[in-house]
Specification:
With 363 residues, the chain is an alpha/beta fold. 42% of the residues lie in helices and 16% in strands. Helix 1 packs parallel to helix 2, helix 8 packs across helix 13 and helix 11 packs antiparallel against helix 12.
Length: 363
């Protein structure tokens, strides 16, 4: 039976397990303290870094988790299990694996996908000195998907609004409007923010301090919520046929580039992604970037979960008795308690993390 003890129920527990495993494996560790926020029990919040292998290696593979807060629990377990399973011994002599734990520690600790400012960190990596990307489709959607009450009647109305937009505008326009990122409604879903979040700046600093100088650099950003249950999906945003696209294919196989298993009929044109910032911070390196999603629920169920969080943040305090079960279901949507799901996360992540360590050091 698979040892599931690497999974945790709180952010401090996940952090302790990760750091304990990293130190036991001889990793060099560093910490970036969030100066303005705490966890729900007053605990300090950090982006933690563990470097396995040569810190000055010419080839460095980054494995990050928690860009979307609560999604960090599965990523943390995958990182910790790989370290405890002897992952450092499978790193080549000219390579290093850089683990970034909890890109968005506030969301991780508070069991939310967003940051303390309701910002989707994975839409926040835009140039905040320039006009924000327009998303007129979201402005059309927002009134219909932002109910003040959360019951089946209101939820039915939300999905009626989504379906009406989809039917009128098509699948791609719908996906771009709903998922792509928006900068007009601070109380909405997938809000990209009106300033760089602390997590944005901490991530960039960690990349500069632990990856800059590498000749070849890769990143896996671990997420949950897209894909079939008990399986995972690669999302590769490199241009088809480009050298980076072909490297991803060589390292992980065809599924790294064909979006096998995606539950999105049309993938949004996303704005402000963390992996884009990773590449921008390393202009002199050969970079390869993928997102890997562990599937949980259907797309419609995940849409419901994201809009439930918006209701919880805006109106949950008005009905605490309802808010508790709504939040519990939200947590289950992004971090399933099913042992079979957790076993699948560990089994699959060991394979693609080993492939990453081998790929980054391949001739």
């Amino acid at each position: 039976m698979t040892d599931l003890s690497v999974f945790s129920s709180t952010y401090p527990e996940a952090r302790w397990k990760f750091l304990d495993a990293a130190r036991a494996a001889g990793a060099q560790v560093a910490h970036y303290l969030h100066p303005g926020q705490k966890g729900p029990d007053g605990e300090a919040l950090y982006l933690d870094v563990a470097v396995l292998g040569r810190p000055d290696a010419p080839n460095r593979m980054v494995v990050g988790c928690g860009t979307h807060g609560i999604e960090g629990f599965s990523g943390s377990a995958a990182q910790t299990a790989w370290i405890k399973g002897g992952g450092a011994k499978r790193i080549g002599p000219d390579s290093a694996v850089v683990m970034l734990h909890a890109h968005n520690p506030w969301g991780f600790a508070h069991l939310q996908r967003v940051t303390e400012e309701n910002v989707d960190l994975n839409r926040n990596f835009v140039d905040h000195a320039q006009p924000y990307p327009a998303n007129p489709g979201y402005a059309v959607l927002h009134p219909g998907i932002s109910p003040s009450r959360w019951d089946e009647g209101a939820i039915h109305g939300v999905f009626a609004a989504l379906e009406a937009f989809r039917e009128k505008n098509g699948e791609q326009a719908f996906s771009d409007a709903y998922n792509g990122g928006q900068y007009s409604h601070a109380d909405g879903v997938f809000f990209g923010g009106h300033r760089p979040q602390w997590s944005n700046e901490a991530f960039r600093q960690a990349v500069r301090e632990h990856v800059a100088g590498a000749k070849r650099a890769g990143i896996i950003d671990l997420h949950t919520g897209i894909g079939p249950y008990l399986d995972h999906v690669f999302l590769c945003f490199h241009a088809a046929g480009s050298p980076a696209y072909e490297r991803a294919r060589a390292w992980w196989g065809e599924r790294a580039v064909n979006r096998q298993g995606s539950t999105h009929k049309a993938l949004a044109v996303y704005k402000g992604l963390l992996i884009d910032a990773f590449q921008a911070e390393l202009p002199d390196a050969e970079t390869t970037a993928v997102v890997i999603e562990f599937g949980t629920r259907s797309r419609q169920e995940m849409q419901r979960a994201n809009m439930a969080l918006r209701w919880l943040r805006c109106h949950g305090k008005e009905d605490a008795d309802l808010a508790r079960p709504v939040h519990a279901d939200y947590v289950e949507a992004f971090y399933p308690s099913d042992p079979a799901w957790r076993e699948a996360v560990l089994a699959q992540s060991r394979v693609f993390l080993d492939q990453a360590a081998a790929g980054i050091g391949a001739p």
